[in-house]
Structures
1.
Amino acid sequence: MNLQYDTEQIILRDTAESFLRQHYGYDTYRRIVASDEGWSAELWREFAQLGWLGLPFAMEDGGIGGGAVEAAVLMEAFGRFLVIEPYLPTVLLAGGLIAALGSTAEREALLTPLSEGRTRLAFAFADRDTSTTARSGSRGFLLSGAKSFVIGAPMADTLLVSARVATGSGDHRIGVFIVPKNMPGVAARPFRTVDGRRAADIELTSVALPASALLGGNENAGAIIDRVTDNAIAAVSADAVGAIAAMVSATVDYAKTRVQFGQPLAKFQALQHRMVRMRVNEEEARASALFATLSLEGPPERRARAISGAKAKIGRCARFVHQNAIQLHGAIGTTNELSLGAYAKRLLAYEALFGSTREHLRRYGSLISKPEIAAEGLLVATG
Amino acid sequence: MDFDLSPQERAFRDEVQAFLTETVPPTMRRAQDLTTGFIVEPDISIHFHRALARKGWSVPNWPAEYGGPGWTPVQRYIFEIECGRAGAAPYNGAGTQFVGPVIMRFGTQQQKDTYLPRIRSGEDHWAQGYSEPGSGSDLASLKTKAESDGDHYIVNGQKIWTTMAHRSNRIFALVRTSNEGKRQEGITFLLIDLDLPGITIRPIIGNGGDHEFNEVFFDNARVPKVGRVGEENKGWEVAKYLLEFERGGTVMAGRVRAQFAKLAHLIAARCPGDSDVTARLAEIGTDLDAMEMIDLSVLSAHQAGGNPGPISSLLKLRWSELRQAVTELAVEAAGEDALRWVTERPLYETLQLPPDEEEALALMPRYLNGRAFTIMGGTTEIQTNILAKSLLNL
């Protein structure tokens, strides 16, 4: 058992933090969020040069060969510095799907430009109303349906779209389709999210795709989609931990300098105790995120427990921290003069994305209410 | 980074499991399941302690030079977790975990030779004499007085909340040897035989109906000075060293995990399909997973030779709350059945009912006694004060 970062992970963390401290202040964040594009092409190129865009991909696919821990280290730094670029949708979700599903040729064709920062992708998975379906015909597929809340879609060139593959036999399986965004029949309705990201609802009307559009030729990709989504939940949980940590330390720093009744707020015991609770929530959130990250390669039930447990637990910690951080800042905490509100919004988005706190608590509960699973400790269950 | 145990650690875990299967009889598991206080009666746990002693495992946290097994932190953790899961009842943590390490660090050779073997074997059972009626959280205000008289101290005063004093033959106590200077600088750490003339023990019965706490009165008790640990008036340093073990040194995960599994069983049996109760079980489960993960991170830092930092107060704070949450939800899940009350203790000696009915009778006493988790060993409020300084530099 070893839960210490290795040297390379420490270097990655320190590099990310020092780069972002220098290049990604609250002013930068606000400028990017206010821009039409909603992301910085210039910073994206820097991310590519730093190796971040190829971080999770295998060396032979032109990547760095990092794992879930490296992704978490980088995402925690992104959360801490409010990075708004579409790293999660492009690299972790779409890139993760291509790495897991794609043929050698597809991986080469798609992951190399992605790692080099030349293309951006987004993954459209949530169906709106009815199931998106791909009807197979003689020349390929006809894709129809509607996807909602596709994060990163507005800045993406290519969409990956999950759809039920109708083969005529009534046997419905799920495949992932490569859909250039400018294809006829693709209509995107872009919108902003509370935390400044860009997303879109996507309408697909008889989009005619060649047979090669089915990623990896795989009509049975459901399990892999779940797995890649779980990877994304672990990563976005690390992002939330970074945001939580930033809010806790901003609050403690503020309490040390803000003077009322002739002394700093930090001297009042009631406030000290509240800040300790915030810090304890941060520690528990970090531990939950780490459990999730380290369980991604484990057996499916263990992975589900760790992922849903982390989402539920960190969602609760995030709520407690963002509310108390605002409260302890007083009136200024309710404004956009400070970065505090941006962190609160980021954490609110975390709570609702990829299944809400409540949904994950329910999923976790359905597992943990079995006494034999409840009895399983973290260490003992392994190996 | 990984959770994986090395092949040696796995082999060790298998050895521990095999040993526990052999040495933890169903009677002990039942005693553990039906114990409503904090500690299983020593007349049950002594048998397990002796079996451990024969194997060389009775003082798992001690280094080899003092007769411990010389385990790595990971081995110790595995051992504690497996003991908790198996329902093994630990014997006298005040001896093995508190005063033992203190004697090793601060004791004279004579004290080491006298006391350590008897803790290992289980011949001695220790009680902790810290709190006094007027000195709870404000421990340094303690007044029990020790006056020098040749090679003895004459001790007068009173200790309280002395867990299991009525089952103990020795007590380690903080006494006041000076009223000069800072309060902390007049305190001395003494090892005292409880059968000395002038010492009386009075029981205190908890809300849960159990006798675990006591008052210990000292009325001109003549305590030999050879029982002093460290220098006169330097006992505060010794006391603080011990508190670190009391707050962070106990591995809670195994036992709490076992109780959590019992709670899951209770809920499955009594409120199947109740989504509200299941949601609360799930919240406790996520807390428990997080705390275990923090435990493991501390362990890993320790194993790597690093300093885990001011984490022991955080562990005490949250584990105590978690243990309470488990007892609280169990009482709610049992509904009216949790109100049935049996006065005899220990329950395992008087009851002869089906397991589910028996265990239901333990829930309310356990909840009531468990309110002390966030009070003893430094209250939640004191731990929070400590964390404000150590974790946030406030």
2.
Amino acid sequence: MTLAPVMEQRRGRLSLNRTAVLAAGVVILFAVYVLLGSYTVTIPDFFRILAAHLTGGEKIPGASFIVMENKLPRAVIGTMIGLAFGLAGALFQTMLRNPLASPDVIGISYGASAAAVIAIVIFGASGAVVSGAALAGALAVAGLIYAISAGGALRGTSRGSAAGNRLVLAGVGIAAALHAVVNFLMTRADIRTAADALVWLNGSLNSANWDRAGVLFFALVVLIPAVAVIAGPLRILELGDDAAAGLGVRVNASRLALVIIAVTLAAVATAAAGPVAFVAFLAGPIARRFTGKASLPASALVGALIVLAADYFAANLAPLLLDGTVLPVGVITGALGAPFLLWLLVTANRKDA
Amino acid sequence: MTHSTTTAASRGGDTGTAVQVKGPKGPSRGPASGGKRAAWLLAAVVVLAILAGASLAIGARGIPLGTVWEALTSFDPANGDHAVVHARIPRTVLGLLAGGALGLAGAAMQGVARNPLADPGIMGVNAGAALAVVTGIYVFGVATFSGYIWFAFIGAAVAAVVVYLIASLGRDGATPVKLALAGAALSAGLYSLMNVILVSSQDTLDRFRFWQVGGVAGRDWSVVLPGIPFLAVGAVIVLLTGRILNSLALGDDIARGLGQRVGLTRAVTALGIVLLCGTATALAGPIAFVGLVVPHAVRFLTGPDYRWILPFSLVAAPVLLLAADIIGRVVLLPGEVPAGIMTALVGAPVFVWLIRRGKGAGL
């Protein structure tokens, strides 16, 4: 009995340390991503390039362009969408108490995908217009799903999972319809346009640039503190709606806030790079395995690690194997993430892994 | 409060004598009595028969029902109308078969996985079939629907077996959560491999995108006939599992307490599911919405009893698929919208309406 608090404390410290390890991992991987690879930059050169870029000083031919216009924005956006997807997935999985829940399943990714493919195929759009369409599509679909499920919840029973279940089912229904729209448009488009759309649909950092990085950065500056604020009520909501209400949490308001934050996180990340498969789905379980408990910061960091590692592979190693095809990062997150999740599953000794 | 009382009252009025004959109150979730459910099932069969007739009659060239009947009973090869009707028979049969298979498989899958997100695809079937078809196109240059079926079927079967084996590893065997996660994980991996090929080969994408939408058009008997034995075996297996699924729904521990050999029964059910949806996917391509949503919709009528959910899904799913196929033929004349697209576009609003009504969508 007397040991229990000590153990609890130790576990808390352990997971904090592990989270610090993850954070260090993100920093190291970021450095590796920018400095090494098919084009290598030394550390002094990197700072010289950076200084020259910021002060408008003398640029190193070639190297300045590759670092400042390709590698660095790619790495910055990769890190940020990783954080956003990781957080969004962990929020959904915790809130809905369903390990299958993630923005992909809930329909948000499909909202973004359908809007983006419509923009690409019907309006011939590219770049920022596609991102804007994706963001609008994701938010509109999320709003629609929430409206559908909330209407029933008002007069439904107070059973904890009922509202969550309806949300999931509405998401599944809408996702299927949007998926059909995407597939249909793919058959109607010119094959080259369809190939472009396919790259977007897989989630790709190939068109990363500083404008996009800036927009994403400001979005995260607002959203990440919001997650920190909502984390407390989330932990109480996990106990079930009735218990949470008993503990003084305003269940409906908290749930709405959670949904809005999680959806916006997933939506801005999807708008920046397309629906990168599996990061949101995978980050939570891996983080839990690594730190020993469900943790939002750890999930976010794991998300960033996954995206950086996968895109490093996609940008540097895959072209060697595939005659120069730069694969979309989402292809790699799926192809490498899947065996990893399977391994987690097989080696897990807890039932809820 | 007011709302639920009204429903209870009106429900009592509707079901009347049947409820009283049944004596003490049954499970409170059962929205309709046995007799009423049988009547609904019969009505669904009638609707299905009407749709099958309509599927022969309606299309780019409309045929009067009388001529359809003539074409079926006394076929005259010289008659153009008769030829059109005959050409529509395989797709109608395929719609019936694939729809029934997907509905049945979806209902059983939700029972096995105890997860509202579980559709037949969750076992990796769609992803396995898709990757195999893409491989068939890319490596072997396959280009016909009858060429795709064996690739799709083998891909679906291998993926499902791998998912089941992975989920069975570890101490507690193939639990629902592990099955669902293993299926989702393997699917994502297979789709990624598929996309590696599609991103690097535009020719492959050009053929694959037409398989990807799923549909019953353009398939002749050489596509439909090979699937029938597999579907028959799968349907028999799954239809026999109603009682098993009912006890599995209570949780593994209770099911075990009731004398079920949980691991074995789940494996047998999974075999039936894979036969059904693997074959359906091989024949008609991935038609995602039907298996997922029809069982949910059916629950609103049947309540949670799988002995009713399974036959209802078997009949209701082809209603959706045939209706979608018929609508798809006429909305975009002279072209067609594939049934795989229309099922989702027609089904989603209906499904959303059902959710809005807010009655138990739980499992």
